[in-house]
Amino acid sequence: MCKTTVVPMVADRDTDPEEPGFQPAYEEAGNGTPLILLHGNGEDRSYFRHQIEDLQDIRHVYALDTRGHGQSPRGTAPFTLDRFVRDLEEFMDQNGIEQADLLGFSDGANIALLFALNHPERVTKLILAGGNLFPEGMDPKDLEEIRTEYKTATGHQKELLSLMVNEPDIQPDELKKLTMPVLVTAGSEDVILEEHTRLMAESIPDSRLVILPGSHWNAAESPKAFNEMVRAFLEGE
């Protein structure tokens, strides 16, 4: 059974900039241990349609639309990874989720990582797919294209690009704090440099590293291999 909760887009309003009570649009399916899926920059929860379908037999899956993405409102709070981390914390509080497994892709992986660093007691298992610690973890060509586009972008598009040009800013030594089981993964032809993905994995105590054949978007392009990897990690194999 799949349940979808949609919060309609609302106009920005003059309220407390911290926006207590912000509610994202989300979809849920399955039962058991919560598994929260966090999509990438400029996308929405539909990126994970194959994971929602396949993993709901072992987890209570929640797939969120990040603030200003998909069917979630933009709101008035700052459009930063730190704000998205607070949105995730509020979502868990609103839905009575004390702890959850997190699976983040791209910017969603960065949100998941920052959340785990700030709230380690609330993360049971952590999957980081195609994430990066700082912008220079991206392939130089891709990063240069994004920086060039950022210079002339306006409005919401500039906000989206800013997340990749200016964030995240995590030092490898910070990852030593993580004590939950962590899976770090990326594609063999990823926009994230393989050496950077390996740096992330090597900086996290006892983490598991898997480089899957394919691109940055292998969860959507090769869902069978991706889901088998995720399932094995979640089930402790």
Give your account of this protein's structure.
The chain has helices at residues 49-55, 81-94, 107-118, 140-152, 155-165, 194-203, 218-221, 223-234; strands spanning 2-5, 26-29, 34-38, 60-64, 100-105, 123-129, 182-189, 208-215. With 237 residues, it is α/β, with parallel strands linked by helices. The model is unreliable at 4-16 (pLDDT under 50). The two termini are 27 Å apart. The longest helix is centred in the middle third of the chain and has 14 residues, at 81-94. α4 (140-152) packs antiparallel against α5 (155-165). The protein contains 8 helices and 8 strands. It has an 8-stranded mixed beta sheet with strand order 1-2-4-3-5-6-7-8, with helices on both faces.
Question: What's the gyration radius in Å?
Answer: 17 Å
Average pLDDT rating: 93
Compute the number of helices. Answer: 8
Helix and strand element order: EEEHEHEHEHHEHEHH
**Bulk shape:** globular
| Low-confidence region ranges | 4-16
Class inferred from helices and paired strands: alpha/beta
What can be said about the biggest beta sheet?
8 strands, mixed
Strand order of the largest sheet: 1-2-4-3-5-6-7-8
Distance between the termini: 27 Å
What fraction, in percent, of the residue positions are helical?
25-40%
Number of E-state strands: 8
